[in-house]
## 1
Amino acid sequence: MSSEQLQADQVPTKAGTAYKVRNMAFFYGTKKALDNINVDLPAKSVTAIIGPSGCGKSTFIKALNRIAEAETKVRIDGQIELFGQNIYDPKVNITRLRRRVGMVFQRPNPFPMTIYDNITYGPRVFGFKGNYDEIVETSLRKAALWNEVKDKVKTSALGLSGGQQQRLCIARSLAVNPDVLLMDEPCSALDPIATLRIEELIETLRDQFTIIIVTHNMQQAGRVSQNTLFFNTDESRIGQLVENGPTKEIFFSPKDKRTEDYISGRFG
Ligand SMILES: Nc1ncnc2c1ncn2[C@@H]1O[C@H](COP(=O)(O)OP(=O)(O)OP(=O)(O)O)[C@@H](O)[C@H]1O
């Protein structure tokens, strides 16, 4: 990749730190999937997570909103703070945490209901008392979908294209006004044009939200992110964070030979 292809502004964020991860280890049952993760993730900025298959990228982001424990039996050692609060503190309200930390998955997963009801679902769950029409319009505008759907918000979300469905899922996350948006390969099921729309959307959202995106696509990491984390597995097949820093440095002057080999396509 040439430096011209790095579209995103590479200046590190001034908005402080969103997540502080310290000595984090992650277990699925007895299997250790991640070990000794120490990293700060900047607020109001896009962080890309890259690395070969099975190195723990999805596991890492699923630890950031505690969704992993909803899926299966897991254990997390160490500490993860979000804006100074330990999210694994027993006093933490998990529903409220997941409201603050939205998530978008590989495959768009709109609910089988109208576009309108998809957007208002979260606010209704949280007992929002204000103007629902306004939330629908604002969320769809933020997700760059309003112009395409404004005349059919009362029709089924399942009638939208894959790319539109993914933007709807982003709009649905935004409707509850989160601090963080986690994205797990959000473009992997999309064609290049729909992918470009999502990348443009990420750029418009990055000043307002902390965005953390797992991607297998190096060009995409280079285009959308300001910071990059490179994960790999060690000789025991346990995921580790090899290197992190400004995307430009990770791509053009990595400090670790494994990062360089991965970026240059020599493995993974
Ligand atoms: N529910 C689970 N139960 C047991 N092991 C799991 C579970 N989910 C993931 N793993 C294991 O944890 C390790 C990390 O998986 P993870 O999906 O986080 O990697 P990844 O880097 O996101 O991979 P990919 O790029 O292929 O999506 C792998 O060895 C995987 O087999």
## 2
Amino acid sequence: MIEANQLTKSFKMYPSKRGILNSMRSLFSAKYEIKHAVDAISFKINEGEFVGYIGPNGAGKSTTIKMLSGILHPSSGTATVLGINPQKERKQLARNIGIVFGQRTQLWWDLPVKDSFEILKAMYRISEQDYRLFLKKYDDILEIGRFLETPVRKLSLGQRMRADLAAAMIHNPSVLFLDEPTIGLDVVAKKNIREFLKEMNRSHQKTIILTTHDMDDIEQLCSRVIVINQGKTVLDGSLEQLKNHIGLPSILKVLFDERVNPKNIIGVEKIEQIDSELTILYDRSKITSPALLQEISQWGTPKDIQMKEPEIEEVIQYFY
Ligand SMILES: Nc1ncnc2c1ncn2[C@@H]1O[C@H](COP(=O)(O)OP(=O)(O)OP(=O)(O)O)[C@@H](O)[C@H]1O
């Protein structure tokens, strides 16, 4: 249903120079580097799958989504979505996919939400009857009725995201590309969006690719994860496989009263040292936190200790 075959996108990177004149010169000079934002990625996604597409900042997630949705042309390799070539048949694809970019709205900023919906209704040639059903349905599940008359720029972030999600569904697409749809939302708004996405996938059989920095999104929604780093796939499997691979990662920051000499400890994946401060990434499935504290207190006298769960990107950077 969605297929990427050695999909690659490279950008020319010109060295950044100070001043407008120098910047212009570097643009026209022959000196540039090639950056492979997406580097020969291949996968097949079946109908009804909910796939988390994750990786650290700059890994190539958005670039992949843009190629799958026909916004960007691949430098090499191919993609097909529902048997459609996104670049050659972009209009036909647009009728069958919905896209949400959490970082920016697809709606008309100064218009009331309803006006944006009506523009989309005309663009997709949706009948009056289907449009009324759409408004009713998405009022029931996303409560869009509460802010239909409000200009998009005056919506809260949570309302804006609900409006964007509803807009992406107006033509009842079978595939959804969601690029960080929960970014910046509070806990309640995130929960609402996740409930909505779950329903779209389970009850309405939508095929969904989701990029996110939020591990809870992945845990609660995705049956499969594709992890990318520096443009390359580093894992394609179940959530269980991801967890088995990374264990139970935790980070311990310890400030000693003087510089110490760390030693190898089983279960410790990585230690970073800046003067007398150590940042220790360890796997709680291999060593417990008290056991680790006991070990490291033999290296010196700790003055301050902090423990935290790492962000998804930290984990991926450490493990891949
Ligand atoms: N138009 C462009 N010109 C040059 N480089 C680009 C362009 N678009 C993206 N890149 C580079 O390609 C790489 C991948 O970017 P991309 O936005 O796909 O990453 P991402 O995984 O979505 O990151 P984030 O999580 O920060 O959104 C980055 O190094 C980025 O700087």
## 3
Amino acid sequence: MITVEDHLSQVLTGAQALPTETRPIADCHGFVLATDCAARLAVPPFTNSAMDGFAVIADDVAAASKDTPVQLRVTADIPAGAAPDSEVVAGTAQRIMTGAMLPAGANAVVPVELTNIPAGPHELPETIEVYEPVTPGRHVRSIGDDVAVGAEIVTAGTRLSAAALSSLVSVGYGELEVYRRPRVAVLATGEELAEPGETPAPGHIPDSNTTLVAGLLREADCEVARVARTGDTPADLFAALQDAAASADLVITTGGVSAGAYDVVKEATAGAGITFSKVAMQPGKPQGHGLIEAANGRRVPMLCLPGNPVSVFVSFQMFARPILALLAGQGLAAATHIHARRMATTTVGWKAPAGRRQLAPVRLTEAERPGDLPTIIPTHRLGSGSHLVASLHKANALAVVPEETDEVAPWDVLEVIEL
Ligand SMILES: Nc1nc2c(c(=O)[nH]1)N[C@H]1C(S)=C(S)[C@@H](COP(=O)(O)OP(=O)(O)OC[C@H]3O[C@@H](n4cnc5c(N)ncnc54)[C@H](O)[C@@H]3O)O[C@H]1N2
Ligand code: MOO
């Protein structure tokens, strides 16, 4: 048996980021940025007001109070979007809206609430009374306060979240160079597979794996190139694999990789240079990986996951997520640490297989008292059995039970991988 780390490093060897493409920024969510992006515009792009009120010279209102208001003449109105065309001179003010450009001469804004003018829509007043002083710069957002032109905003290799995209828009970007998102083909093997919703014939079970893998791919910002069930001969499966390799960037199979008399993935790929290993983990022991060649000579990575649904789920997290992250343009360090890890306390005990690292689907609950560790409980009373698919959706973490442990006790502290 080989370790989880050794198998992962074999899976990742040779995998590299897909080619880049330029896309409109509205279509970049979840893609990985290919170039460092510096600010093209300052933020804010011009000095503007943080309040609805009046642009003033701070010195003019230094002595203002409720009892001795300062009277100013209002010389202009500056709604958001307008470019002011006159200066604020001593004894005057200009009405200004939040986000509107500060007129020349002014150095502070008096919010409307600190004047005799009621808030809301009104005719432009001829004069105002100011009830409180404002210091220079008060309620003014200066040009470049947030970032100056040229400041680094998002670096290459970053997965583009909504917030990252909005930052890039705010500094002047309308399109971005990103890595192409991985297109993945999913092939489930097994004579026993029934269509979702179909009443299974005796000895058959619903194919839940293709739905699981396709959904996990979408959750990982990938494109699902094709999904197929192949219950056929090794020759048919090999043809389907070659076909998938012609257009997909990664091929994932489920089932047919252990020690059975009909392990079709092993048979179909015999002589094709695919490596089958026993990985010291549970679930997910039998694994295969390698490059599969299409008829047109295109060679793409392939992951052969075991058929048991929980094994598929766990193997996807441990091996598919990292290689997908690499293909999508995240660096090796990010790809190998794709999940957050933390410590948690068990609330019940369970058995674990000695000699294999158990990755048990668990429900993690945050502690009520600040500083306490979160608690975990297996999502199924039978623990990490690889067929326990119907409770899988309750898992939000995988508990890591070390190879040398064969029994977990209540209140043990374990590392967990957050999902
Ligand atoms: N003699 C041995 N037998 C097994 C070993 C072993 O080392 N020696 N390993 C066991 C382990 S561990 C696993 S995991 C499984 C993996 O088997 P395969 O990858 O060959 O998968 P299958 O035999 O095709 O299926 C296993 C299981 O999963 C169900 N399955 C398969 N595909 C689907 C699907 N698309 N949707 C839902 N469920 C699926 C299938 O019906 C089987 O119950 O091998 C052990 N055996
Ligand atoms: O590796 Mo298997 O997934 O333990 O059942």
